[in-house]
Design brief:
83 residues; 30% helix; 34% strand; alpha+beta; YaeB-like fold
């Protein structure tokens, strides 16, 4: 599957410290190379934030799926992302 970053998610990832940003991007690359990246995802009960999330340590990547593409909506610390 292909990943597409919304502009807000791209801004959020640019604001992260470089080691965290690299770790998240490498993990997303790994997920993209898998046949079914959703096996690594969890569903989100509150759909205001998207329908799916990847958990990456203390960070979350919230996303939706449209036309066989993963649309990344938000990226951030687990304590702040759902506010």
């Amino acid at each position: 599957m292909k990943f597409i970053f919304k502009e807000s998610a791209a801004r959020q990832i640019r604001k992260l410290e470089q080691p965290v940003r690299i770790r998240i991007l490498k993990k997303l690359q790994f997920y993209a190379s898998q046949e079914n990246p959703l096996k690594f995802a969890d569903s989100i009960k509150d759909s205001r934030f998207g329908n799916w999330k990847f958990r990456l340590g203390n960070y979350r990547v919230l996303f939706d799926i449209k036309e066989n593409k993963i649309i990344i909506l938000k990226i951030g610390d687990r304590k702040e992302i759902y506010k």
